[in-house]
Amino acid sequence: MSKILGLLLAVFLLLPMSSSEGARVVVAPTEQLPQVILREQLIQQATIGIEDYLQTGGETRRHTIEEINTPAGLRLPQGRITYRTTLPNGVRLGKGTQVNVDVLLNGSKYATMRCLMRVRAFDQMVTANKQLIQGTEITAQDLRIDEREYKGENWTYFTDIKQVIGKVARRGIGQGEIITSRNIQNPVIIHSGDLIDLSAVVNGIRVTTQGKALENGREGEYINVKNLSSNKVVRGKVIDKNNVEISR
Fold first, then answer.
1. How many CB atoms lie within 10 A of CB 1?
2. Backbone angles phi, psi at 234, to 5 degrees
3. 206-214: long-range contacts (C-beta < 8 A, 24 or more apart)?
4. Quick check: 183 and 128 in contact, CB under 8 A?
């Protein structure tokens, strides 16, 4: 039995090993279609198209481009080959980005080859140097700068520690977590019961009177305030710790 197993193992080791690269279809020329565009040429054109798109859009972050799925190649008749690329859905960071590579023969479109690429963007981001408790006012010692990937999420990250100092953790933030517009907020600068200056612009003239805050407020937030001159409750925007502005 051991001799049979040994023989089978020897035969197995002599067999050619397959790989994803080796398993790809190789497009060879024919007498009627003597020119061949290889898969690698399509990847190159798709990469050029993405780079042009990013440069036009002002993208300056470090990024990488890798192939996900590309046609094996294309046979063509004799003629001058040129290329034109389009990104119908733009660049989708961290996800599949479709690049249409138009193959032109003597200036006319011969075929469109659809390539699926992955674009990853990286930036120097402010992250938590230690675990931050909800409600904690953030100091410089709580922060550090790390290079992280941005995947196109619907939040704003920060590249300067000074942008975050003095903010408050909206929730618990883990060590190493990216600081974003979703997990921090401005501190409360007006508290319910505070006397403040309540102002509004009427006919181009700014009018100011005394008011009383009826709820806590952060810079940029809208809160209810009682106008002490009229005893009316109005809603205004927190400008700073002493001022609330009514929009008319």
1. 5
2. -125, 170
3. 211/236, 211/244, 213/244
4. no
Q: Write down the residue that tokens 């023989």 correspond to.
A: 7
Q: Which two tokens stand for residue 193?
A: 């019961």
Q: Token match 């080859």: residue? A: 113
Reduced 3-state DSSP string for 41-90: HHHHHHHHHHHHHHHHCCCCCEEEEEEEECCCEEEECCCCEEEEEECCCC
Measured distance CA(20)–CA(66) in Å, rounded = 15
What is the predicted pLDDT for the residue at 202? 84
- Check residue 108 and give its pLDDT: 97
Residue keyed to tokens 């999420």? 153
- Which residues, at least 6 apart from 89, have a Cβ–Cβ distance to it below 8 Å? 97, 98
User: In DSSP terms, which residues pair with 114 in a beta bridge?
Assistant: 100
In the chain the beta strands, taken as DSSP E runs, fall at 35-38, 62-69, 73-76, 81-86, 96-105, 108-128, 143-150, 168-169, 184-185, 188-190, 195-202, 205-213, 217-218, 222-227, 233-240, 243-246
* pTM score, whole prediction: 0.73
Q: Quick one: how far is CA 69 from the chain centroid?
A: 22
pLDDT value for 6: 42
Strands 217-218 and 188-190: antiparallel
pLDDT for 142-153, tens place per residue?
999 999 999 988
Q: What is the pLDDT of residue 105?
A: 97
List of the chain residues with pLDDT < 70: 1-25, 248
- Name all domains of the chain by residue range, CATH numbers in brackets: 31-121 (no CATH), 123-185 (3.90.1210.10), 188-246 (2.30.30.760)
* Cα 229 from Cα 66, distance rounded (Å): 66
